[in-house]
Amino acid sequence: MSGASGEANATIACLQFEPSFGDSETNLEQAAGLLEEAHRAGANLAVLPELFDSGYVFTSREEAFGLATSVEASPTIERLQEAARGMDMYIVAGFAERDGDRLYNSAAVIGPGGLIGVYRKNHLWAEEALYFEPGDRGFPVYATRIGRIAPLICYDGWFPESWRRCGLGGADIVCVPTNWVPMPGQRDDLPAMANILCLAGAHSNGVFVAAACRTGTERGQPFIGQSLIVGPQGWPLAGPASRDERAVLVAHCNLADARRARALNAFNHVLRDRRSDVYGELATRS
Amino acid sequence: MSGASGEANATIACLQFEPSFGDSETNLEQAAGLLEEAHRAGANLAVLPELFDSGYVFTSREEAFGLATSVEASPTIERLQEAARGMDMYIVAGFAERDGDRLYNSAAVIGPGGLIGVYRKNHLWAEEALYFEPGDRGFPVYATRIGRIAPLICYDGWFPESWRRCGLGGADIVCVPTNWVPMPGQRDDLPAMANILCLAGAHSNGVFVAAACRTGTERGQPFIGQSLIVGPQGWPLAGPASRDERAVLVAHCNLADARRARALNAFNHVLRDRRSDVYGELATRS
């Protein structure tokens, strides 16, 4: 019996950069450089932004279909698998997934042994609804050698149910490839609303959150950077990164501490105190 | 058809002070002064802290029973009803409720016409579990002349399900009598975690949040003040108040704007975008 740290460690990296629209070769090269930097910093889990290989602002279905790839024939997945194998690392990365005539805004979860799973964004933001199908795989939690990893993508984080599904699924680390955009009313003296939602999601579920955002303006749409890594008490461990610069954020995380920290005192536990008996079905009236 | 403001206004006040343990007469006098100040500032809805009439740190069941009152014979409710009638105001106030041999950590919702309802805290914090029964009335939303009011109390706010039940119940304003205590790891350069959870709850549901906290240290337990009023985009409209001073926070709120603001763009709506089809039953594994 031991309360010592070191018993379940992950070193998490969030990789922030500006993808070039439609230029997956350049984007993969940029990602490769960032992954190596993360590896040199000791990371064994790295998160890349949403749709990092294709860019985000499509203007037609044709364009979106042209930039999406099937898991089986994706140069992106292949290159990330090579990197994961070569550096003995886990990688969570957003990519445009094609499955027959359907497109998904997806996140690949890749380990040293290859592809582990693909999460499909459940909550589509704005014009994404014109190109992508809503996710159809629920909220998977992947048990890996370093701990349990659950992906969410961008607008998923606006729904506390997303964080909760990950928490109740046993996740230790929620990895969030994202392309956050400015929110109305953002205050300069407070964190970005996207960051606030990560802090609350981490605190309310006792999980680590690793969110990797892109930077830059694409076809008139600005993105806000500010990637961050949050601990299970809801406080940033690394970041937020700047609004517009390339960044490699790294945090050493004791996952055992997180599982213990969910017990707040002799009476309270962030997950077990849920009153499922009074939440009803959380059905709709809006 | 009009988008003009002024069509559904509430002026909300949060009243922050330090109750004296076990001295309900003094506490009611303090509250009366604060309510008058709020009234002079134009408030038609005022929120008082959790257990403002009794104090918080009980040391025995006997003591807790001695300081709790039944709704029918509560000097606290009676005095608040007089104030609400006299000032044409709505009041949400925490009190120790006795119902036969059961105690509840409750919030009375009172209007100019008298008592509207009593909410019983669903999530009990720490030693509260020794004295109080968990709430047994779900998450009521009270339709009033000024708008729909839903009470939550303190630790309820740690559970995103609480905010969601209010939002899906149609709440415009979530009123939170609270006795927030310090949270581990609190950072000086970030808002109190309790405040962060209010910002996230407001933003994710498009509701106003009015949280009134107490100050002071009682029997060794410090409380953190920092009451605040949050708008439906998740940004503070008033406060956070100081950590230790008496305060009357006031914000003018257009409830019609809040209902409109839940539509984020042509595709997205904070409540209607919920993916109930993939949330499962949000059942337990922890």
Task: Write structural notes for this entry.
Two copies of one chain form a homodimer. Chain A is of the alpha/beta class and 286 residues long. Chain A has helices at 24-40, 61-67, 75-87, 128-131, 160-168, 193-205, 255-261, and strands at residues 9-16, 45-47, 90-99, 102-111, 114-120, 142-143, 148-151, 173-178, 208-213, 217-218, 221-222, 228-230, 236-238, 247-254. Chain A has one domain: 4-Layer Sandwich (Nitrilase/N-carbamoyl-D-aminoacid amidohydrolase), CATH 3.60.110.10. Chain A is 24% helix and 26% strand. In chain A, the strands form three sheets. A six-stranded mixed sheet of chain A has the order 5-4-3-2-1-14. Chain A has a six-stranded mixed sheet with strand order 6-7-8-9-12-13, with helices on one face. Chains A and B meet through helix 5 and helix 6 of A and helix 5 and helix 6 of B.
Tell me the fraction of residues in β-strands of chain A, as a range: 25-35%
**Can you tell me the CATH architecture of chain A?**
4-Layer Sandwich
Binned, the helix content of chain A reads 10-25%
Cα distance spanning the termini of chain A: 50 Å
Main interface pair?
A-B, 66 and 66 residues
Overall average residue pLDDT of chain A: 95
Largest sheet of chain A: 6 strands, mixed
Question: What are the segments of chain A in which pLDDT stays under 50 over at least 5 consecutive residues?
Answer: none
The CATH fourth-level homologous superfamily of chain A: Carbon-nitrogen hydrolase
CATH topology of chain A: Nitrilase/N-carbamoyl-D-aminoacid amidohydrolase
Large-scale geometry of chain A: globular
Alpha-carbon Rg of chain A, integer: 18 Å
CATH C-level name of chain A: Alpha Beta
Query: Domains counted in the coordinates of chain A: how many?
Result: 1
Q: In what order do the strands lie side by side in the largest sheet of chain A?
A: 5-4-3-2-1-14
Helix count, DSSP H or I runs of 4 or more residues of chain A: 7
